[in-house]
Amino acid sequence: MTGLSVGQRVGFGTAAGGAYAEGVNLPASILAPVPGGVSDEQAAAVLLQGMTAHYLAYSAFSLSAGHLAVVHAAAGGVGGLLVQLARRTGARVLATAGSAWKLELARELGAQLTASYEDFGGLARQHGGADVIYDGVGKTTFAAGLDALKLRGLMCLYGAASGAPDPIDPQLLNAKGGLYLTRPSLSHYTQTAEELRWRAGELFDLLRSGDLLVRIDRVFPLAKVQDAHRYIEGRNTLGKVLIGM
After folding, report:
1. How far apart are CA 106 and CA 53, in angstroms?
2. If you ran DSSP here, which 8-state letter would residue 112 be given?
3. Which of 31, 102, 176, 219 holds its CA 20 to 30 A away from the CA of 237?
4. What dihedral do alpha carbons 11, 14, 17, 22 form, nearest 10°?
5. pLDDT-derived band of residue 1, with 50, 70 and 90 as boundaries?
6. Which of 30, 15, 18, 54 is nearest to 184 (CA)?
7. Is 106 in a helix, a strand, or coil?
8. Sign of CA dihedral 78, 32, 215, 58
9. Is the distance from CB of 76 to CB of 217 less than 8 angstroms?
């Protein structure tokens, strides 16, 4: 039983082989039905990064009112969606980014506090320390993040855009307050078709109601895919970059 029918619109975000093709052969278990009211572009833009933001906010750490969450790279694809989902839980969001105008974008998405990558730790401590830090940056932010967490806080390292953090002695987590450290991936939180479609379905519902903004930065034709990668590597993206067929 797949729950799908021939001709139905579907999307995916966890296929190992990628999507630079006009046709792909995939197992039904990793496909999410795309409902009416959600465009092809929105579905393509939200599934990978949106399901990542969803598991971070609701499963890797269950955010709720009163929590302080640090969201690094908050103007990017995952970061911008994570800010919005985190705010829906009632949590306070401290957003970081690499420029003043990116911090302004994070505020527009709902972040109450903003700081540079150099200053976020001090601001978090001023507010009692972070309950959770969502770090997709890695090497340049990881060590400062351990000092920004409150007692028994969680460092959720889900990416490493600046490179892998230096290895640490587990005793350091004890010395800094009994901290927790996790290094998850989306595949760990979409283990079944039901779990994947639950996450995708909630995202699609928020899109249809207008309660989630998915920013599509640019659409490159497949023939210009090299230009798309150079654009992403330049760290100028403000949302999702798509490849059009």
Report:
1. 15
2. S
3. 31
4. 10
5. very low
6. 54
7. helix
8. negative
9. no
Between the two ends of the chain, the Cα-to-Cα distance in Å is: 31
Amino acid at 16: A
* Residue 167 confidence (pLDDT): 95
Q: What separation in angstroms does the CA of 201 have from each of 97, 153, 204, 210, 228? A: 29, 30, 5, 14, 28
Determine the average pLDDT of the residues in 45-49.
95
Helical packing angle, 40-55 and 77-88, nearest 10°:
70
Angle at 239 between CA 138 and CA 137, to 5 degrees: 5
The 10s digit of each residue's pLDDT in 87-126 is 999 999 999 999 999 999 999 999 999 999 999 999 999 9
- Identity of the amino acid at 174: N
Which amino acid, residue 244? G
Reduce the DSSP state of residue 94 to 3 states and report it.
strand
pTM of the model: 0.94
Contact between 177 and 149 (Cβ < 8 Å)? yes
Q: How far, in Å, are 111, 127, 192, 229 from residue 155 at the CA level?
A: 19, 17, 26, 29
Rounded to a whole number of angstroms, the CA Rg of the chain reads: 18
Burial class from Cβ neighbours inside 10 Å (0-12, 13-18, 19+) for residue 26 reads middle
Beta strands, E only, 108-148: 113-115, 130-135
CA 6 from chain centre, in angstroms, equals: 31
Three-class DSSP category at 188: helix
